[in-house]
Amino acid sequence: MDFELTDEERAFQEAVRRFGDRVLRPNERRIDAEHRIPAEVLSAMAELGLLAMPVPEQYGGMGASAVLTEIAAEEVGRGDFSMATAVFFLLEAGWGHVLARYGTDATRQEVLPAVTRGKAFLGVATTEPTGGSDLQGMHTTSRRDGASFLLRGEKAFVSGVEEAKELGGGHLTLTRSGAGSGFNLLYVATRTPGISTQRFDNMGRMGISTGALTYQDARVPEAALVGSEGKGFECAMEGFSVARTFVSAACIGAAERALETGIAYIRERKAFGQPLGKFEAIQFELVDLWTQVEAVKWQCRRAAWLLDRTLLRGDLARRSEVDRLVASVKLTAPQVAFECVRRVMMWFGAAGYTKDVGLELGFRGIMSYLVGAEGGLNIMRIILGRELLGKEFVPYK
Ligand SMILES: Cc1cc2nc3c(=O)[nH]c(=O)nc-3n(C[C@H](O)[C@H](O)[C@H](O)COP(=O)(O)OP(=O)(O)OC[C@H]3O[C@@H](n4cnc5c(N)ncnc54)[C@H](O)[C@@H]3O)c2cc1C
Q1: Which residues contact 110 (CB under 8 A, 6 or more apart)?
Q2: Ligand 1 mean position to 378 CA, how many Å?
Q3: What are 276-298's pLDDT values in tens digits?
Q4: Among the three residues 162, 194, 226, which one is the final residue of a domain in this structure?
Q5: Domain coverage including residue 45
Q6: Closest ligand 1 atom to the C-alpha of 130?
Q7: Residue 337 in domain
Q8: pTM of the predicted protein model
Q9: Which of 55, 203, 256, 310 is surrounded by the most beta carbons within 10 Å?
Q10: What is the domain count for the chain?
């Protein structure tokens, strides 16, 4: 087993870190205030190959491994502390993979080259106003009508609703199959007639919209089907495994940034005649947090390594191992990151409560992964409970 990055991986990591320092950090406050990621930032991401990284080269992507994408996600999370750019990055990486693997060639050609150039957005729509955890209880339907599907229903809390309307693009949308059993996963362009959107007023990661999509007999072509009819649920679960790994990586990058900020401060700031870092009460907190970040970071890298050997190759035989690892990383990384930000805010005292120091950006952004984005913490616990005890102990799908 080799824990070293290859020369190529290290060079890419350094390039994305430079991009984070030169482009993301100077723009993060603007991203938060203007509620959008500036076009020049998206162009720079496209130039570096950061958009939908795992998508094969024939559709404009890098064909990047999950490990390389995970490394990049960490750097994006470190660069834009508000998490908005990380969300944009990881949704396209995770769901770009699903579309590239299971979409029809017509839809791949239509969507993926534009997404990788930053000229369209790609996200996922599974959550409904009645809930996001219990996906089997969803109501939105896609009914076959000749060579197309008619969608009826509503999705809620979906990331990128406005970006997909303004830039172009859409969402891989999970719907109940009109045939009665199973689920269809469909690529649904947001500008399709019969779709309306609404932006919600979030508390954080303001640079990417979250909102509702309402479908009133919105017609999408048969070619929009991702995977086979009635089997969309499995494809969606695959996308969640991939995207949750990158969510966790972004949280780890943010955690590292919080600790770096904190270390610089407690070396300099004095109280009672000595730097804060000389007080064991603070030094030990730093050590405990660093240890937790280090542990989850390597667990996350291992999850990406496993994805490269399984799902990204189309091998589903080790699904259970993937589920276990990804759920434990997604359960841990956002909590560790949030705790790092919270503790470092306290080391700063009153200054930590100001926007000048900027820790509140991370506080608001990371919180989205605690309340539910890409699956709530208890859903990760349910997956792990099912894996550790068996399905008979977990009455949910
Ligand atoms: C900023 C943000 C962006 C998002 N982006 C997207 C997106 O792009 N696309 C999309 O489809 N969705 C998105 N979501 C929605 C997200 O997937 C849901 O929040 C999540 O699935 C939980 O659903 P819910 O919010 O309806 O909570 P509910 O399902 O109502 O659950 C409420 C709480 O109860 C817990 N809970 C539920 N069931 C159980 C149980 N059996 N045992 C114990 N606890 C349980 C949950 O963990 C949660 O804490 C986003 C959410 C946020 C906050």
Answers
A1: none
A2: 9
A3: 999 999 999 999 999 999 999 99
A4: 226
A5: 7-121
A6: 26
A7: yes
A8: 0.97
A9: 55
A10: 3
